[in-house]
Design goal:
homodimer, mainly alpha, Tetracycline Repressor, domain 2, 60% helix, globular, DNA-binding
Chain lengths: 225, 225
Amino acid sequence: MAWEIQVKVNEDLYLRNPENSELGKNIVNHGVQMIDQMGLEEFTFKKLASRLKTNESSIYRYFESKHRLLLYFFEWYWRWMEYQLMFNANNVSDPIEKINIVLRVLMLKQDNMLVPGELMDKEALHRIVIKEASKTYLTKHVTEDNQKQFFKPYKDFNAKIAAIIHEYNPDYKYSKSLSSTVIEMVHYQYFFMQNLPSLTDFGVSKDENEIINFLKELILSCKRN
Amino acid sequence: MAWEIQVKVNEDLYLRNPENSELGKNIVNHGVQMIDQMGLEEFTFKKLASRLKTNESSIYRYFESKHRLLLYFFEWYWRWMEYQLMFNANNVSDPIEKINIVLRVLMLKQDNMLVPGELMDKEALHRIVIKEASKTYLTKHVTEDNQKQFFKPYKDFNAKIAAIIHEYNPDYKYSKSLSSTVIEMVHYQYFFMQNLPSLTDFGVSKDENEIINFLKELILSCKRN
DNA sequence: ACCAAATCGAAAGTATTACTACTATATCAA
DNA sequence: TTGATATAGTAGTAATACTTTCGATTTGGT
């Protein structure tokens, strides 16, 4: 490829930019894989270091804490989502069609999403966001992290969806809340489907696209009720 | 009072029933207060012990881990919620009125909710559930905990709401998913409102009842769209 | 009133986590 | 050759999440 998408992440999240060195790239790559495989609580820098055949302290030179590494992934994910949305919704003017695109993007159902040989494993990242993302903000120090703008990509993406909802129905009063509801529910319904199935109407064997339909109806019905 | 509501919690959650002793009651009481004040991650059995002027090991005789204590609160909360719903919806037959009641109960807006002198501080518990509940199931061992029935009260409550939605519109295909969406969103919108306000249409100063209205519309609009 | 069992408190110990600090080496470009 | 940058290694700290042991006290039944 002659071009590449560069996802820009808040510089305050890292001590040294992981994009600029082999070790850094490995930390990010294998970090995603390991958190996906073993879950956030089991994952430690020590284990990551031993997998990379290096030392704990080397990793701390890139990220000052596990939490910051998670925030890095979280930022990266939403910036990348924003790009996907922008790219796929380009030249589309019909709000309903835009809503379709939003949902497909959120469910990782876009064709061009998996570029072979690319740095970040998007499917693993998606699973991490589903399972671990809320832990980035359900903390004592949300306000602090928010002031440092760590949630900006997430909020920006939210604002984009809210704008599309507003476009679809300018009279609707709760476009921001509906937007955050839909975004969170893409993840929650997916998680419930796999782990607490009695909380959903979707089965793993059934088509996941049913989730899209459920959420689509939720959005579309904000008009005339 | 000549009567009292007894909330029954899964016996596998504790080693010794905390209801049966002073120390046990104190663990539960002060546990709620402390988690509410300092957040789950800061909270430790050591700190709780020192507050109760006792020893860490004494607490471990009641709950084998912090996680189990959290699950205890979580179970207790949803069993109590179920009771509140049953009590308040008694003799009500109109599904729309039932939906109103569900939302008021979920938002802790029932009059009879705060009984002075009662063991459990419901407002603190409510805040804990908003902020920490998802941590009970967003773990490596969800499946295991689920098999041990630790999420049963939560799932039962969900099923009740789903049944009411079904009653309101028997043709709707996603009553379970809509139910879990609404329950989670009561908490999320509340949390966002207080901590990441750009993700909602509600301000702290404004009436929280707007959340009820948003969710009510969400449910009611599942008919005819 | 007495004995056994239940309960509690205190102390100490373990493995692991989430770091920090300090030092040493390898690479490469001016 | 110098020096900046990247990486590596060792050691150490404070705290967490427990477990174990042991002795003292309380309690409940006969």
